[in-house]
Amino acid sequence: MNEPAVSELVVSGLHVRVGGQMVLNGVDLRVASGEVHAVMGPNGSGKSTLAYAIMGRPAYEVTAGSITLNGADLVDLSPWERAHAGLFSTQQYPTEVPGVGLEIMLEEAVAATGGDRSAVEAQVAAEAELVGFDPDLLYRSLNVDLSGGEMKRSEAVQLGVLRPQIAILDELDSGLDVDALAAVSHRIELATHQDNLGVLAITHFSRLLTVLHADVVHILIDGVIRETGGPELAAQLEDTGYDPWVDDRSVAPVEIHLGGDPWP
Amino acid sequence: MIDSQFTPEAAGAIPGPDWLARRRVAAAEQVAASAMPSVEEELWRYTPIGQLDLGRYQLATDAGAQSPTAIPGHCAIADTSNGWLCGIELTPETAAQGVEVRPLGESDAELAASVDVDLFAVMNAAFSVEPVLVRVPPGVSVEGPIVVRHWIDTEGAAVFPRLIVDAGADSSVEVLELYGSADVAAFVSPVVEIRVASAARVGYLAVQDLGPKVWHIGSQVSHIGSQAHMRASTAALGGEYARMRLDTHLSGRGATGDLISLYFGDGDQTLDFRTFQDHAAPDTTSSLLFKGAVDDSSRSVYTGLIRVRPDARGTNAYQTNRNIKLSEDAWAESVPNLEIENNEVHCSHASAVGPIDGEQLFYLESRGVPTETAERLIVTGFFDEVLDQFPVLEAVPAVRDRLQAKIEGLSHHHAIERSGSGA
Questions:
Q1: Residue B381: closest C-alpha in chain A
Q2: Spatial distance between the Cα atoms of A124 and A55, rounded to a whole number of angstroms
Q3: Do A259 and B377 touch (CB under 8 A)?
Q4: B72: helix, coil or strand?
Q5: Any idea of the CA torsion for A158, A161, A166, A169, to the nearest 10 degrees?
Q6: Integer Cα distance of B230 and B365 in angstroms
Q7: By the number of CB atoms within 10 A of the CB, which of A63, A145, A174, B279 ranks highest?
Q8: Reported confidence tier of residue B344, pLDDT bands at 50, 70, 90
Q9: Which member of B354, B363, B423 has the closest CB to residue A60?
Q10: Residue B341: strand, helix, or coil
Q11: What is the predicted pLDDT for the residue at A164?
């Protein structure tokens, strides 16, 4: 095992436009190795946009600001180049990819960085055991016919094999049963300790933070971070909701539909 | 009027049983009296049929080389070369079961139905030099596929392969037909007739992997009897213009037909499919899945009709055609149709033409799979649903390899275009 790398994801002054609308209006964040940051906010505050923009999803247009990993600017890189740089992201509703299995995807990802493709099978088996992912499901197409819990366990397997420096987890707890959430959260925390993984966990509810323990909590409203604090901020949020941070200058929830299945 | 060397005299000169010679001449007379189809006709819309000059082709007089494609595990194999039969082998066990694989003989007149769905099927009746019969006696289950390999290596050859599959009641058989060619310009116009008697089970797979200068206009006509099951598949990979028309008649009560095909166009190919699911009896089921991809400046056409006749209550009929457009210059047309004359039926159709799914691509890329590799994985995965359902399992690895070779050659100008819209 390598020395745990020290990495830092820095988001500064990030402005993002999606479908003609400004969704992020100057987000500043720093996530370092080993840290767990939570970004919390109401619907439409820009949480998922932040996750997608960091990962470089097409049509999420950075109009100003920067995203850097260890000082290198990511904004002009494609998603796979960002993954090679050390980023990983999970989606709230992972995309089904018919006919493409978990192992072949990971083999291609590992091979593309010059890694050993032949080691992937054993790594997948070990990671699957660690998070209680049924080995029979390894041969299914990615996210096809999987429950919410199975999908997130699958993503935890991917994280375990790919060993990213920074993971962005979008609504990790959505659609998850308690056991799966515990298993996946445990795997992520293990990575923060063993591999010095830095985590940016995006969530609507403080429930997630009872199993995934955040060092830093940010409150995102209308595309800007309104407050940053420790875990006590999440506790306060539990009592008050988002009202104390919401001013009256806006709050039109932004619904975004992109891409779409051309074969519904 | 067709003005070419495809005359009744030429048809009459082809050796064979008397009944067949008479039928050839009659068909050739019909050909001589016919006009070439035109794109004005619905069935020939979107095609380059106007470019077909039959005068460029003539019946090949000799066999040349044989197909180099080996398929493991077959129980019988027949080879044609430039249309001429040049070898038939059956394992002793298969022959002992009474299975026949042979050219048509003097007493087979009633076996060869008239197939006149279009001009080219009639030309086939006139100019098919050595039709092949596969006959399975009632109650016999054949182990391993019966393989019929066609190879064309004469420049300018016109070849009219004809295969008749006659599966007796309660029999079971799988038949694989392979079409391949050397790098020659040729005209290949096959007809396959499949008769599935009551309670019989037939799997049929055609692998069309002709060279890029070959025109292919074929017909498959099947009749499925009561409680019988047919799964008929095509992998269309080669040809300059390659067309298959499939007429599937669900003739007996409780008949089932599965039509599962794939096609992959690249270069300047045009791949064309016309399907008819004809429900003529009660409680019949047909399900059709055609998946295709078009790359470079290739084109594909799918038009399908589900017809439910008045007596065919309790019909279940499904038709799905999905296409991936892999390049800006590629083009796919998909036209499903229903014609229903009975109310007690379940029918559905779906069709789609679209680029590689952007969300799937993002998912794989966000794991570190480079764009081009991700596209190949997605396109390969797209066809898995079809390959997983193909009959004649012995042939699937070869089809997979050929398909993969085409996928490896994906053009990538579209990827460059898309990256311009990113963050």
A1: A99
A2: 23
A3: no
A4: coil
A5: 20
A6: 41
A7: B279
A8: confident
A9: B423
A10: coil
A11: 97
Q: Which amino acid is at A86?
A: G
Please identify which residue in the block is written with the tokens 């048809």. Answer: B11
Residues 6+ apart with CB under 8 A from B26: none
From the list B363, B149, B270, B5, the residue with the least C-alpha distance to A259 is B363
- Quote the distance between the C-alpha of residue B206 and its chain's center: 5
Q: What is the tens place of the pLDDT at every residue in B230-269?
A: 999 999 999 999 999 999 999 999 999 999 999 999 999 9
Contact B363 A142 (CB under 8 A): yes
Phi first, then psi: give them for residue A217, nearest 5 degrees.
Answer: -120, 130
Least confident stretch, A107-111, A117-121, B65-69, B407-411:
B407-411
Q: Which of B21, B49, B205, B37 is CA-nearest to residue B129?
A: B21
3-class secondary structure for A5-16?
A: CCCEEEEEEEEE
The confidence band for A175, taking pLDDT boundaries of 50, 70 and 90, is: confident
B279 neighbors B286 (Cβ within 8 angstroms): yes
Give the CB-side neighbour count of residue B45, counting CA atoms within 13 A: 9
Helix (H, G, I), strand (E, B) or coil at B151: strand
Q: What band does B412 get if pLDDT is binned at 50, 70 and 90? A: low
Of all residues in chain A, the one with the smallest CA distance to B356 is A262
pLDDT in tens, B25-35: 999 999 999 99
Q: Which long-range contacts (CB under 8 A, 24 or more apart) does A117-121 make?
A: A120/A161
**Hey, what CATH topology would domain A8-95+164-245 get?**
Rossmann fold (3.40.50)
What residue segments make up the domains of chain B, in order of their start?
Answer: 55-418
Instruction: Note the pLDDT of residue B418.
Output: 43
End-to-end CA distance of chain A: 44
At residue B413, does pLDDT exceed 60? no
φ and ψ of B391, to 5 deg: -75, 180
Rg (CA), chain B: 21
Domain ranges of chain A: 8-95+164-245
Contacts of B54 (CB under 8 A, 6+ apart): B2, B4, B6, B36, B158, B187
pLDDT in tens, A89-105: 999 899 999 999 999 99
